[in-house]
Amino acid sequence: MSVTTPRGFRAAGVAAGLKASGGADVALVVNDGPDAGVAGVFTTNRVKAAPVLWSQQVVQGGVVRAVVLNSGGANACTGPGGFQDTHATAEHTASALSAVSPRLLLGAGEVAVCSTGLIGERLPMPKLLPGVRSAIRGLSRDGGLAAAEAIMTTDTRPKTTVARGSGWTVGGMAKGSGMLAPGMATMLCVLTTDAVAGPATLDEALRAATRVTFDRVDSDGCMSTNDTVLLLSSGASGIEPTPAELAAAVTAACHDLAQQLIADAEGATKQVAIDVVGAASEDDAVEVGRSVARSNLVKTALFGNDPNWGRILASVGTTAAAFEPDEVDVAVNGVWLCRGGAAAEDRSKADLTGRDVTIRIDLHAGDSTATIWTNDLSHAYVHENSAYST
To answer: Is-catalytic flag, 186?
Structure first.
């Protein structure tokens, strides 16, 4: 279950010495198929890492044969030199791949680059480039898991997925456990498919998928500078699904990865689904759900197993969504603690001792719905992020 499950793809993950731990830190995904279509969605943070700026340009060309990813350094806020490092990485990858696979004959403009790690420091290129060569030597059809492991930072486990169509497949890998608050998607993610699909179809499917999956994950309200989601097609199955079929499979893969991300959120002891119903519009429902997800008071209450519905209602009230305060209902794990904006069932009935929590908010203002996924705020989250750079 990985990026190499679809036909036409190889991958690898190696240790190049970028991480102080000595763990795997360079990953490579290569498309050997007859097609090389690509679509991408990137962070909307105005402060964008060099690899994001590079890969945005590459994706506009509509053709990507390889994606090189590194952990151990974000290459963000590194100035012109950082962009030159990204360009050099793409050139080196293209040249080295072409040397061992002459039929590819790819240029730097067909290599996407992704980085993740600490912001503000240049990458150690004398380590990274040999790491790329090592990854090329290690490319295999079984290399998907190793690639997923190599892009981990504070993740506790690799994240991979597969969604199957009729004779064709979508595979994927992702990393992310902190800075999970989107403007499009969250984290680094590479999706692959052996379906026959051009860049326009891939773009439509990817944007439809991220809108209702990665874009609804909001762990800590902090948007990364490096968020990248790429979808590559090899066409190796020879089957061209309908746009709706492709979108459904891509959405299923993204949903699975999104749930793995929130389950692995830094320091989390609760995995929380905030279901907003009865909204006047989908945008209203998303705004309400995101406001509750970003409330530190709500998140700390959940960590303490306290079903404090007043904090939830107060968060709803900070939004511009259409609703009447005395008509809002709130349930926690199926217990309606608030009816019509006031106390209802006894809060002691809401059991929060388990990991999974569902908050349901009925605005009674329309027929639209949305779900935002988040987590609690624990001592471990504070500790991990206070010590991250050291």
So the answer is: yes
